[in-house]
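Need a sequence for this fold. Nothing fancy.
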């Protein structure tokens, strides 16, 4: 909790500096504390030498022992495998003797597979971790200490925002490098609003404004809906912030069963079957909401900036705006990093790969060009170019959303906490359970596992 609170404070401080500045997204990417001084310039005891000074750039590196490195990722497939291949090709120009073998899994399956591999002693050499699950793996001893490879050891830490870098430390040890950030906005179909004679959403909208428009735009008999927002843990903690509530108090006790929590739960669970399809209609259909929006049957969509590339290819006429709040604004920011396994046989090569993957100019260019989230690097010129890309016309909303950040609550038993909250919300929708009673039970369960 201390790390999470520090992260929120520092991200907000960073985002207040300049509305147009690239400082905003990169610091939100991992937003946390100042980097630790507890790093070492000595090579690891396994005998591998640290990577060369240019390991996060595109300049030729010092010779390195041949190695094959596994990389396990959830964010590359299926839309960005070619982008990842381009990054690997550039990496191989610098490190011709290191082979990168990519493994992918969908986000829904990724952490189950990763946990199985780690528990079985067959962890990939390098892999992707999100902010929410990083602490669990760092404290289990599963991650390589990158200290020997920082600074003079090869990885240019100045390439990253200090606050972003600290987001993937634990107990003063750097276990990962910040890779990307992304946030959630309200995506809307301009054509549907035009045909209905309604004004487009604005940054001043509240939940009430969204619901009024959603009701006017919904024609369930025709399979047309006004709004789509997943009934999930991730949407709940954000809606809780928008209602003016908090997930935990200063002592780490669950407080999401407050009146604000009930309001957030009612906001989310009141949409299925009214202004969006029922959960039964949605079922387990992959990309149900994506297909609905791209087919012109969904007017407003709570989703992330990673959707831009697919939307641009689909030809749908859309734009974005900061999500509506209620008592206040609160916007979700997601952060991913790259880590190496503590058990890798090639720590030097693994460190060189994740440094290139997260900080090289090639990576920055590829990610920005393909809208594959945003890199966590200190590169103001690159982000200025990003803002010029259309659609969406209001791409500035990506950065405006960072003015009011709601970071995910994080505990060691993260997956269990997310399941508890997600199942509680489903009980409200599917069983008609009382929101207050359900949240009271869920809060007690979260307190029990948070310890």
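Here you go.
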């Amino acid at each position: 909790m201390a790390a999470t609170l520090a992260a929120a404070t520092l991200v907000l401080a960073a985002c207040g500096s300049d509305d147009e500045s690239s400082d905003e997204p990169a610091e939100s990417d991992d937003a946390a504390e100042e980097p630790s001084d507890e790093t070492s310039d000595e090579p690891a005891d396994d005998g591998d030498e640290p990577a060369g000074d240019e390991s996060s750039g595109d300049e030729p590196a010092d010779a390195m022992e041949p190695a094959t490195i596994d990389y396990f990722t959830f964010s590359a497939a299926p839309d960005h495998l070619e982008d990842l291949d381009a990054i690997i090709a550039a990496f191989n120009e610098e490190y011709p003797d290191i082979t990168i073998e990519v493994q992918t899994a969908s986000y829904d399956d990724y952490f189950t597979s990763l946990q199985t591999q780690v528990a079985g002693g067959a962890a990939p050499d390098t892999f992707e971790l999100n902010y929410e699950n990083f602490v669990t793996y760092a404290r289990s001893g599963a991650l390589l200490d990158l200290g020997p490879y920082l600074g003079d050891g090869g990885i240019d830490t100045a390439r990253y925002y200090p606050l972003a870098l600290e987001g993937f430390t634990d107990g003063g040890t750097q276990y990962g490098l910040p890779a990307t950030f992304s946030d959630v906005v309200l995506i809307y179909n301009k054509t549907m609003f035009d045909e209905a004679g309604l004004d487009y959403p604005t940054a001043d909208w509240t939940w009430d404004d969204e619901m009024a428009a959603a009701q006017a735009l919904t024609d369930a008999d025709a399979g047309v809906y006004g709004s789509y927002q997943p009934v999930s843990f991730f949407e709940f903690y954000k809606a809780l912030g928008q209602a003016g509530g908090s997930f935990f108090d200063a002592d780490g006790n669950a407080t999401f069963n407050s009146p604000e929590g009930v309001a957030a739960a009612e906001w989310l669970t009141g949409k299925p079957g009214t202004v969006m399809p029922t959960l039964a209609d949605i079922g387990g259909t992959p990309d149900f909401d994506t297909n609905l929006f791209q087919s012109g049957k969904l007017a407003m969509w709570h989703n992330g900036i990673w959707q831009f590339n697919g939307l641009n290819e689909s030809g749908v006429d859309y734009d974005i705006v900061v999500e509506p709040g209620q008592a206040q604004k609160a916007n979700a920011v997601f952060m991913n990093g790259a880590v190496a396994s503590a058990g890798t046989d090639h720590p030097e090569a693994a460190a060189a790969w994740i440094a290139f993957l997260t900080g090289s100019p090639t990576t920055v260019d590829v990610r920005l060009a393909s809208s594959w989230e945003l890199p966590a690097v200190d590169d103001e010129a690159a982000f200025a170019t990003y803002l010029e890309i259309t659609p969406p016309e209001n791409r500035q909303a990506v950065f405006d959303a960072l003015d009011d950040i709601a970071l995910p609550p994080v505990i060691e038993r993260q997956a269990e906490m997310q399941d508890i909250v997600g199942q509680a919300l489903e009980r409200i929708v599917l069983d008609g359970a009382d929101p207050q009673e359900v949240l009271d039970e869920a809060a007690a369960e979260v307190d029990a596992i948070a310890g």
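For context: The two ends are 12 Å apart (CA to CA).
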